[in-house]
Specification:
The protein is of the alpha/beta class. The chain has a domain at 9-198 and 231-265 and 322-338: Rossmann fold, CATH 3.40.50.720. The chain has helices spanning 18-28, 47-55, 82-91, 107-127, 166-180, 203-216, 235-247, 260-263, 267-278, 289-296, 301-310, 314-317, 326-332, 342-349, and strands at residues 9-13, 34-39, 66-70, 94-97, 133-137, 149-151, 186-192, 194-196, 221-222, 229-230, 232-234, 254-257, 265-266, 285-286, 321-323. The strands form five sheets. It has a seven-stranded parallel sheet with strand order 3-2-1-4-5-7-12, with helices on both faces. α1 links the parallel β1 (9-13) and β2 (34-39). The radius of gyration is 20 Å and the shape is globular. The relative contact order is 0.13.
């Protein structure tokens, strides 16, 4: 594939994750010279095996163009050997940093992976003899407790923002850290909204991303505003835009990748489509928090447990915000994967997903 990456040496982090794993085959199929992929052993699988489990056989098809660097974002200095650290500093032109902890309730892990690991990355980029392009995968949710609005890229982050969970605060802090040293690298921040896996993703990623939709259909009532809008995006669109932004110049530093104001969905409509895709016929009752508190006493223990598992997500569901996407479309053009994907997508994939 002809891109603007000819002759470039690229470092990818997070290659066994949702977005990094979808980026890996796109990078390998481009005209770059070498792809370095940071990885670690986990649960008895080495770094290459974990990449293969996420990205498939493409991991073994490109020989020495794919070079795996053993490292761990949760450890100081990524636990890199001196030789591998020197390789990243001196031999890479572009960094695509997709690695992150997305666990909402693990503050220590989010600090290590999303903040301290970013500081290590900044230090390596500052030491580089040449100016690298640094593409940081942020989160559109890092603006914290916003509500009932269309959010622009430059509206946030702000140091006094409040957050539902530490994960979004850690992503906000990382952006602030990256901007503080931006003179040393060409920074581009890609902020996706809520990301769905590609249709061919392993079942694990389908379940991890989509189980809340099925679980919402397993309860009688839920404290969610039926008319609240939510902004989902397919991982294919996120990767399309990352590839475009690292392959050439960019006019802005920060970009939302989202369905935006026109194509976002209300929760009631999403659950109607999920019910159709899973053969269910009944939607939950959408209640205010006060209505749900009054109704809760009459609900079964199993019901309360299911809603409890959704609890950390419910504040986000009620925000009723969408993320403006005109900037990325204006600068990079439209993506075939950005709009009107949800109906067919849910019909294709929801049979793989189980409630929790």
């Amino acid at each position: 594939m002809q891109t603007g990456l000819r002759g470039k040496r690229v470092l990818l982090t997070g290659g066994s994750g949702l977005i990094g794993g979808a980026m890996l085959p796109r990078l390998l199929n481009s005209d770059l010279e070498v792809l370095y992929s940071l990885g670690r052993s986990k649960h008895g699988a080495n770094a290459r095996e974990r990449l293969r489990a996420r990205a498939g056989d493409v991991v073994d098809e490109f020989g020495s163009r794919l070079r795996i660097i053993e490292g761990d974002l949760q450890e100081p200095g990524w636990n890199l050997s001196p030789a591998d650290r020197r390789k990243i500093v001196e031999e890479t032109d572009i960094v695509v940093h997709c690695g992150a902890s997305t666990y909402f309730q693990r503050e220590v892990e989010c600090r290590r992976t999303n903040e301290e690991a970013v500081q290590t990355l900044i230090e390596m980029c500052v030491e580089s003899p040449t100016k690298k392009k640094l593409c940081y995968l942020g989160s559109a949710a890092c603006g914290g407790l916003q509500r009932d609005r269309v959010v622009q890229e430059d509206d946030y982050p702000r140091p006094d923002d409040n957050h539902f969970v530490y994960y979004t605060r850690s992503k906000s802090n990382a952006e602030t850290m990256l901007r503080a040293s931006r003179d040393h690298y060409d920074l581009v921040i890609v902020r996706p909204s809520y990301v769905f896996p590609e249709r061919t993703a392993p079942t694990k990623f389908m379940n991890d991303s989509l189980w809340p939709l099925v679980s919402m259909l397993e309860v009688e009532a839920i404290p969610v505003r039926s008319e609240a809008r939510v902004d989902f995006v397919l991982v294919d669109a996120v990767c399309d835009y990352i590839m475009r932004l690292i392959s050439g110049p960019h006019s802005h530093e920060t970009y939302h990748v989202s369905t935006g104001e026109i194509a976002s969905y209300m929760w009631r409509n999403i659950l109607i489509r999920t019910a159709e895709a899973t053969g269910r016929s009944k939607l939950p009752d959408f209640l205010t928090s006060d209505e749900y508190a009054a109704r809760k006493r009459s609900l079964s223990e199993e019901h309360r447990l299911r809603v409890g598992r959704l609890g950390v997500y419910i504040p986000f569901m009620n925000q009723n915000i969408v993320f403006d996407n005109r900037r990325v479309i204006q600068d990079c053009g439209p993506s075939d994967s950005l709009f009107d994907f949800l109906d067919d997508y849910l019909m294709d994939v929801m049979h793989q997903v189980a409630p929790r």
